[in-house]
Amino acid sequence: MKNLTIAVLLSLLFYACTLDEEPEIVPVEYSSLKMQPEQDSLFLRANAESRQVSLIGAIINTTEKTLRNTGVMVDLNYTIRTIDTVFQGVDVAGAEWITTNSDVASVSKGLITARNPGYAQIYARVGNTTSNFLVVNVRAVDTAPGLSLDPPETILIFEDHTTISGYVQQGAILRVIEPDSGLDTNNVIYTTAGTFIVPVIGLNQGIRLITARATNPNNAALFTERQKTVIYYQPYTIEADKIVGNWLGTTLGKNFNFRITHSPIPLRYDIEGKLDIQFEGVGLVRDIDLIGFLNPNGTISATLSKSTNGFSISGKFDGYFKTTGTGEGSYSAKAEKSGWPKISFKEKWTAVKLP
After folding, report:
1. Could you read off the pLDDT of 5-54 as tens digits, one per residue?
2. DSSP 233-262
3. Of 355, 159, 351, 124, which is closest to residue 240 (Cα–Cα)?
4. Residue 304 in contact with residue 275, Cβ under 8 Å?
5. pLDDT score of 64
C-alpha cells in the first residue's frame, strides 16, 4: 500500500508539472511576404493621415518522389519534386516593421503614420523573410496631391472603350480627361485607400492620351497629372493589321515563336505558336502548343497543351499588346502523368514583331 501511495503521488506531481509547461511553438517559415493592399506607393498628408496595411505570407510545401521515365526523356530513374504553395494571413503584431526614415513615416503593427514631408520605404520581416517595399510619399497639406496610375502606360485595344485606374492622395479632387472624345469626369470617387477606376468610352481611332489630374482642394494651382496612352484601331483596318505576322517571344533567355493571323471568326485575331518549358525533375519539354485569340481590349486569351505517351501539359498564356509591335505577359503550366505528382511552372514573357 505504501508503494502504491508513493506511485500515485509521483504521478500527480508529474501531471502538475506538465500543466505548467508551455506548448512548443514552431515558427512558420514563409517563402514570401506581401503587404496588402498590394501597391507600390502610398500618398499621405503630413501630421494628418495614417494607413493600416496587412500581410499575406506564402508557405511552400515540398515533397519528392523517385520515378522511372517512360519515354518523355531518355530511359532513366529520376526524382520529381512537387511544390505546393499555400497563402495565409500573417499576424501583423508578430512581424518586425521597418521604416527607412522615421522622421517622414513611422510604422507599428502595420499602422503607417505620416510625420513630415518626404519619402520613406516601409517593409516587414518575419524570421528570415522580408516583404515587398512600400514607398510612402508624405506631402504637406499645402502641396500638390500624390497620384499614380496602374500599368501599363501604353496599351493597344480593338474597341472604343477602356478604363484608367490608380491611387490618389486622400482629400484631393480627382479629374479624368480625354479631350478628343469629350470625356471630362470631375470629382471622381475613390476609396478610403485612394484607389479608383474610371471607364473611358467613346474613343476615336488613333493614339489617344488620357489624363488624370489630382488637385489640392484648397488651391487649384497645386495639382499633379499622370497620363496613359491608348492605341485604338478597329480590327481589320490597315493600322490594326500591323499586328498580323510573326512574333519573337523571350522568357528566361529562351526564345519562342508565335504567329497572329486573321481568324475565321469575323473581326478576330488568332494566335498560334510553340513554347519550350524547363520543368524541374522532368527536363525540357519542347513544342508545347500555344493556341488562342486576342480580346477586343487587347489582352490575350490562349492555352498551352501537349500530350504524348500518357504525359500531358496544360496551362494558360496571358498578356497584352502595348503597341502593334510589342507585347508582354505571363504564362503558367502544369505537367501530369498517371502515378506522378503534379508539377507546376510560371514565368513572364516579352515579345516583338518580326519584320
Report:
1. 444 444 444 444 444 444 444 457 888 889 888 778 888 888 878 889 99
2. --TTSTTGGGG-EEEEEEETTEEEEEEEEE
3. 159
4. yes
5. 64
pLDDT tens digits for range 129-141:
999 999 999 988 8
- The pTM of the whole model exceeds 0.90: no
Q: Hey, is 14 helix, strand or coil?
A: helix
Please say if the pLDDT value at position 334 is more than 90.
no
| Domain at 147-232, CATH homologous superfamily | Immunoglobulins (2.60.40.10)
What pLDDT, on a 0 to 100 scale, did the predictor assign at position 63? 64
Do 32-139 and 147-232 come out as alike in CATH topology? Answer: yes
Q: Please tell me the distance from the alpha carbon of residue 302 to that of residue 104, in angstroms, as a whole number.
A: 46
Closest by Cα among 326, 27, 346 to 155: 326
Cis geometry, peptide bond prior to residue 37 (ω within 30 degrees of 0): yes
Q: Are 293 and 210 in contact (CB under 8 A)?
A: no
Are 145 and 42 spatial neighbours (Cβ–Cβ below 8 Å)?
Answer: no
Query: What is the DSSP pairing of strand 254-262 with strand 245-251?
Result: antiparallel
168 closest CA partner among 186, 137, 190: 190
Asked if pLDDT for residue 181 goes beyond 90, the answer is no
CA atoms of 158 and 73, how far apart (whole Å): 43
Cα–Cα dist 330/346, whole Å = 7
pLDDT tens, residue by residue, 261-301: 999 999 999 999 999 988 776 778 899 999 999 999 999 99
Q: How far is CA 96 from CA 50, 106, 109, in A?
A: 18, 13, 8
CATH class belonging to 32-139: mainly beta
Q: Where are the domains of the chain?
A: 32-139, 147-232, 240-353
Alpha carbons 63 and 156: distance in angstroms, whole number:
43
Write down the CATH number for the domain with range 240-353: 2.40.128.30
Strand ranges across the sheet with 77-90:
32-36, 54-68, 77-90
Single-letter residue type at 32 = S
Looking only at the bridges linking them, the beta strands covering 219-232 and 154-157 are: parallel
